[in-house]
Batch of 4 targets.
Target 1
Amino acid sequence: MLNTEKNSTFSLGRGINKTVIYVVCMLLSVLSILPFWIMFVNATRSTPEIQSGLSLIPSGHLMSNWDVLIGKSFDPFQGFLNSFIISGGSTLLTVYFSSLTAYALVVYNWRMRQAFFTIIMCVMMIPAQASAIGFYQFMYKLHWTNNYLPLILPAIAAPAVVFFMRQYLLATLSLEIVEAARIDGSGEFAIFNNIVLPIMTPAIATQAIFAFVGSWNNLFMPLILLTQKEKYTLPIMVSLLRGDIYKTEFGSIYLGLALTVLPLFVIYFLLSRYIIAGVALGGVKE
């Protein structure tokens, strides 16, 4: 009898705890979605409506805001394409070469390995703004201004991503697998591309999201290096919408921001399943 009462009390308490957890998660989800919903709603409102106060109900000025956006001296579709080229290229370079560097730090036992990793950690502490002037002068001497290469190629060296990949490999990669592949006659790049990269898929997906978002939202370096309007990225174009000294069209600004955010949602939803799969795999790993 006592055991039955204890079990019922335990079940009741467990049910209450689960309910509280679900309610808290729902509230946090709403708080996370609310700013994006307000942005999309403001993209359909006029400037006087936005200045009058907050609203959660869409208005009917989407097309007029769109006409203002495409009526500027730049092409938002071209800016979208430019941003995608830069972000896609830099993301691929970041995740592949950072994974390759992390693989070398974990698998190979060479004399300067720890010193090299210490240097990578020190580089992480240097802000990009501190080297911006020297980087611009270097690119100017190479005649690489108004070029996408200075915005893509430096992504090969991503210290933070290397650190994350190294920690992930230390926890998941078994060196016996690498040794067995070598005994079977596989080359080092074949081992990395065919064995190690599939193991690193959750980490690669996670860092690909962060790398793509960081490159897509990057305004500082493209604003310095790009001066031709046909090469502007979408964040630059959105920032120039506030440059009208006579009237600021907030509706078109929010519409530009909404267009900027949409690819980030797509990338996240495409890669999030790999992150979830990696978490589930780690949960059942012996």
Target 2
Amino acid sequence: MKTGWQRWAAVRPHAAEAVTLFLVFAITVAAVVVTWAVMPGSLLWPAVAVSALACGALRWRRKRPFPVLAFTLLCAVAQGALGYLLTPGLMGPLLVAQYSLSVQSRRRTTWNSAFVAALGMVVTGSLLTPFHQSPVLAVVNPTAWVLLSAAFGSYVRVRREYAVARAEHAVWEREEEARHRVVQERMRIARELHDVVAHHLTLADAQAGTAAHLAHTHPDQALAIIGKLPQTTSAALRELKAAVGLLRQDTDTDDDLTPAPGLDDLPELVGTCAAAGLTVTVTVDGAARRLTPVLDLTAYRIVQEALTNVSKHATTRTAVVRLAYTPHYVTLTVTNDATERGSSGPGGGFGLLTMRERATAVGGTFHAGHRPQGGFEVACTLPLDSHDEGPAT
């Protein structure tokens, strides 16, 4: 969070730079005057002139940090040679130059420059200033301030790099999340299109094949089946229009979209299967529950795909759908009594894959495979705890 000074400096950078240089100059001159007052033998105006030159050089500290640091270091040495004690105030331009270089440079460069500046302070305090009897004031104190300025500049640089890294990581995470959502949405739409196309085209193919088989021997039955064929194709077109309509939307509005099918549409599904020659028996155990749209669509699509597989692969034309409701789960079971021809087993085929993906997406379990007594079974259990909307009315 930016302070008021930072916001003002961001809006008026030139004015902020002028204010900064003036404050450094004022502090440095004040330190010179205080030292001159304590030690009247020191030369005042040469020290003020050197301070002005050092502060003026700070204007280029961001573009030319190394020359500015070297120049301010020479000015600090000159102040010591003039007989002044190198206090933090008097060393202000040097400390600012060292901080600016540390903020902009790598760690090795920062500390190499800091050690050179510190060595200059050691030489100045040991050989040029008149305070040889007090090495703490003449040597240790100015050296420590130079190193402290370098350390603080390095800390600020690391904090800024960390902030930039965090911002880049946050952008990367948002991009990854967006890509993940796109992939998930593509998979969801692919499942919808697969279920719609596979189911309706399979039933239409079965109806057409049955009608062709009965055309010569039972023409009345063949005509009746052909008469129901437009219902199957119309249902396919409606669901395809609804699925493709999701891809054309610019927003998430649900206006003018066909409601997603659910378990309440099982009678229509059973009738469509009957028109294709597949007899389906539906049994319900327990009190029926009203499901959320997501769970309701998941259950319907699993039953629909299971019946599609029966219509494509089973040698018999019968299937049993069982819905079992408990307080926390709904179990869907679709079975047929004959072995399946061309079935890929419980783990293969896009139909079984999409059913498993749908079940696991809502936290359920899925199983498909041959039964010991013969035939094939698809069973899944869907949790109601986080999806239940209460008893059906």
Target 3
Amino acid sequence: MSTEAYDPAAEGAQMSFKGRMSYSDYLQLEKVLDAQETLSPAHDELLFIIQHQTSELWMKLAVHEIRSAMASIHDGRLHPALKNLARVSRIFEQLNNAWDVLRTMTPSEYTQFRPYLGMSSGFQSFQYRAIEFLAGNRNLAMLKPHEHRPEVIATLDAILAAPSLYDEAILLLAREGFDVGIDARRGDWRTMRQESPQVRSAWTQVYQDPERHWAVYELAEKLVDFEDYFRRWRFNHVTTVERVIGFKRGTGGTGGVSYLKRMLEVQLFPELWALRTEL
């Protein structure tokens, strides 16, 4: 084992960055690392802030990938859409793993800084709302927490004015010759679509003959993967909140655990789950 100090410059590594773009410059790390401003003297508040900030960064990427998948499905280019959706599933796997870190915080530690949060709450995340709206869960009541920010409302309204990810998948079924009923003629994308027996029948036909409809079959499975990981994220959210605050009300005024458990009942792609009973 050599006792001499290793110098990467000997192998050509650049060691001087005066006048050059460095790693920190490219990632704008000063902005990122200066964004954690604790309001209390509590040790665990930094964990709480970083957990939620990193989750928002992953959600930003999820929105980017879902939008790209939707555009590809709309254009009939399924291979890049499948890649996008696979990445979204991996993003939610990362988001799921993050709960494990937050769960190291005990109720006693959380109560030391909870009063400093005011009425701020995770259900006010506009990026989470964008993901739900993009996927197809278009509960217009959830626009209200964002009404104080016109630019956010404009972004969410633009999402609601166009087909969702699931709408694009159903429209693809129609272009492939499947009877999807009224979903082929929908024009008001803002309203929540109703589960359809025709759409369920169309997806069932795909699953009954996957070799014939392989690309659409793969798309369906990628959508199920996405919702599977999304459900796990919601479940882990519920258990983490119950572990840390029990059944207290949330800081934003929701029922806390009771509100989150209600969200577990929401299905993004209902016909894709229902067909499994029929096969």
Target 4
Amino acid sequence: MSKEHFYDIIRSPAVTEKGTLVSEHNQVVFNVARTATKPEIKKAVEGLFGVKVKAVNTLVRKGKQRRFRGQAATLSDVKKAYVTLEEGQRLDVTTGL
């Protein structure tokens, strides 16, 4: 796969409070494409960052109803991937590629 395809799978790092907490357990959280599978996510992380991936866990956060300037709106569903790295591997998503 090409690097462009990897960027289509991995949308962005999820820099949240929980994402910071799981980094202590050698995990990283990414927002990924809704159609991405676990093997594709593993290949994309290994290809983009040059690290060895031990496991990938995914979840889909359902969109919520919100009001914006008095109008009802629905936020989009978001798929997240919790990527566990092999022992000795480090990944700092706060720095750019």
